[in-house]
Amino acid sequence: xxxxxxxxxxxxxxxxxxxxxxxxxxxxxxxxxxxxxxxxxxxxxxxxxxxxxxxxxxxxxxxxxxxxxxxxxxxxxxxxxxxxxxxxxxxxxxxxxxxxxxxxxxxxxxxxxxxxxxxxxxxxxxxxxxxxxxxxxxxxxxxxxxxxxxxxxxxxxxxxxxxxxxxxxxxxxxxxxxxxxxxxxxxxxxxxxxxxxxxxxxxxxxxxxx
Length: 210
What we know:
The chain is an alpha/beta fold. Helices cover about 25% and strands about 15% of the residues. It has helices at about 70-75, 105-120, 145-155, 170, 185-195, 205-210; strands at about 50-55, 60-65, 90, 95-105, 130-135, 160-165. Helix 2 links the parallel strand 4 (about 95-105) and strand 5 (about 130-135). Helix 2 (about 105-120) runs parallel beside helix 3 (about 145-155). The radius of gyration is 16 Å and the shape is globular.
């Protein structure tokens, strides 16, 4: 892992050691920093997401970093994992909360994801454990090279990154469901279940997809 914050070239920060995850846990491996970093400048206030008090306990929250980031569609997949409605969730008197960021793969979405990841990395939301980032395709087909490269930069600043393809059924208003969902969606749910409930039975045959 690089010692330099992937978003701020002028900031030198200590590397965060990544501990290998035991195979028996079946958790997705860490590919980026798993905790806030010293020396990361905070994004400007206008680019920061607000914090909202929640009274609903949840093992995981989907946090869309901009409008149309698919957090509502993703939240429909697992009833126990609600949408955070574009704000960092905070539980009064409770410990930390787990959050997975969601963004579209266009430049607006990736920049919003970068700002949210930087807000977390700067230590501005210490009650939040960011599990990773889900980048949802904003159109059918392969991403243009500038977006592919920028998505790699943004993804390097969060613990894990997943990419989901364009899902025409969701665009047409069909209720999202794991049954019949693309393999990438089911694999995402498997990976997140392994993080919040180690050893949970998945929906996808690992030998088939890895």
